[in-house]
Design goal:
- A hairpin with a 2-residue loop joins strand 2 (36-38) and strand 3 (41-43).
- The longest helix has 24 residues, at 119-142.
- Helices cover 47% and strands 10% of the residues.
- It has helices spanning 13-20, 56-64, 78-90, 101-112, 119-142, 156-176; strands spanning 24-29, 36-38, 41-43, 52-55, 68-70.
- The two termini are 33 Å apart.
- By secondary structure, the protein is mainly alpha-helical.
- The strands form 2 sheets. It has a 3-stranded antiparallel β-sheet. Strands 2-3 form a two-stranded antiparallel sheet.
- It has a single domain (11-140, 151-176), classed as Ribosomal Protein L9, domain 1 (3-Layer(aba) Sandwich).
- The protein is built from 6 helices and 5 strands.
- Residues 75-171 form the GINS subunit domain.
- Residues 13-71 form the DNA replication complex GINS protein PSF2 N-terminal domain.
Length: 187
């Protein structure tokens, strides 16, 4: 969702991708490597052709050096995303997706699209899901109530997008609901 520059005070999408790269993903190593310690933890050993869990940042680094294949997460396939798109367009609530699905999908598809079946279809479905969820966000913000806002299953990127607008809107609503003596009005 594109917001005016004055409202863009949140983390930028690239920073969210960086945070998402701490999540673990399965890889199939193409080289052997002993267990290696990093600041964020120790990973390995890598023994081809056995799967190994590593952070996305490490998988990206190994993939760019052609030293592994990335195993797509369970949710990053055409059938699952098609089901979620159907739910997004037919149900009023947000469908359940991993909290950082948009960031993880972008990073993995940018670097390891050759490890995915039908990456173009995946990108298309992710874009359609994102647009459907943005439409729901806009509808929800249009019905904003000063007392409560419940948006379960919102992902990190979506929360980050609406946070600046929401904070300002709630401030205005709070001012509007006060009586002249500055006391909160009861409903």
């Amino acid at each position: 969702m594109a917001l005016p520059i004055a409202l863009r005070t949140s983390v930028i999408p690239q920073e969210l991708e960086l945070v998402a790269c701490e999540q673990l993903v399965d890889i199939i190593p193409l080289v052997a490597m002993e267990r290696t310690a990093f600041i964020s933890g120790a990973y390995g050993p890598l023994r081809p052709p056995a799967k190994c869990k590593v952070p996305i940042w490490m998988a990206v680094n190994l993939k760019m050096k052609k030293k592994c294949h990335v195993v797509p997460p369970d949710w990053l396939n055409v059938e699952f995303l098609q089901d979620r798109l159907t739910r997004e367009t037919s149900e009023p609530q947000f469908s359940e997706l991993p909290f950082r699905f948009a960031e993880v999908a972008k990073v993995l598809l940018d670097v390891a699209s050759d490890d995915f079946q039908n990456p173009d279809k995946l990108r298309s479905l992710l874009k359609d899901i994102r647009e459907a969820r943005q439409a729901k966000s806009r509808e929800g913000l249009a019905k904003l109530d000063h007392s409560e806002l419940s948006l379960p299953n919102l992902c990190a990127l979506e929360i980050n997008e609406i946070r600046p607008f929401f904070i300002r809107a709630m401030g205005v609503l709070t001012k509007l609901t006060k009586d002249p003596e500055g006391q909160q009005m009861a409903y």
